[in-house]
Structure formats: C-alpha cells, structure tokens
Design a protein that fits this description.
By secondary structure, the protein is mostly helical. The protein is 63% helix and 0% strand.
Length: 153
C-alpha cells in the first residue's frame, strides 16, 4: 500500500544526494575546505552532547528519526541565513546512506570528496570551534564515518 511512498522518498533522497555530490565535485578548494570544516564542527557539536556522528552506524537504528532532526536543524539555519547548515547536509546524507544501502555509494562519494580538503580546512575548523567556545575537535580529512569507508576492490 505504501510502496509508492517509499519509492518516492528513496528517489527524492537519491536526487538530493546527487545534487549535493555534484556541488562538492564542482566547488573550488576554498569552498570544499569550508564544507569539510563545517562537517567537523557539527561532528564535534554533536559529540559534546554524547552523539558520535562518526559512529552513527552503531546507533542510527535506535534513532530512526535522526535524519528528520537534521532536516529541521538545517531549515532553522537556512531561515537564519547561517552558512553552517551545509555541514549538517554532509551528516544528513551520511545518515541516509547508512540507513538505506541503495544510497551508500553517495555517502562514500561525499566522503571521498571531503578527503580532498587542504590544511586550510583545519585552520577554518579551529576558528569555528573557538567562535563557538567549543573544545578542539576532529580535523582529519581521511576520517570517514564507519560504514562509509572506501571500498577496496
């Protein structure tokens, strides 16, 4: 009965992931560094509340509405004209990729693009942490959420 709804949701999520991935592929180095730094910032922000986004594969099945929470947060940030929401998009697409195997390739590709961040991304992340009064967090471009590691084929 609701098969069409699930298919529609999957298609929409695939389209959104594809658009986000295309934007990462086409962005300049400064933009990529900013997005990586913002993804690290949000990982640290959630870590300070007890949620390790890099290990969300281990807890996501108990928090099935986490992607919905991220969408709500992104909408608030967009309404407030905050650029930091793009970092949450990384985690939204990562969560969806971990929840739905058919989207996993997009999650892996997003993190492959973020792995191209330069050392400038670390400097930006440090600035973001300091501005928010947070302790220093992740700045390793090669760190990938469990379950979205590159495939060695």
């Amino acid at each position: 009965m609701f098969g069409w709804f699930g298919k529609k949701a999957e298609d929409t999520q695939r389209e959104e992931a594809t658009r986000f991935l295309d934007s990462l592929r086409g962005i300049d180095q400064d933009g990529l560094d900013s997005i990586a730094a913002l993804a690290w910032f949000w990982a640290q922000k959630y870590a300070e509340t007890g949620l390790d986004l890099y290990e969300m594969d281990s807890w996501l099945s108990q928090r099935m509405f986490f992607p919905t929470e991220l969408v709500k947060s992104i909408k608030v940030l967009q309404r407030d004209r905050s650029a930091s929401g793009v970092g949450l998009h990384v985690w939204l697409h990562s969560a969806r990729a971990l929840m739905y195997p058919e989207l996993r390739v997009y999650g892996r590709d997003i993190w492959a693009q973020l792995a191209k961040a330069s050392p400038e991304a670390t400097s930006l992340a440090i600035q973001f942490y300091q501005q928010a009064g947070m302790r220093f967090g992740e700045t390793d471009p090669s760190r990938v959420p469990t379950g979205l590691e590159p495939l060695n084929r």
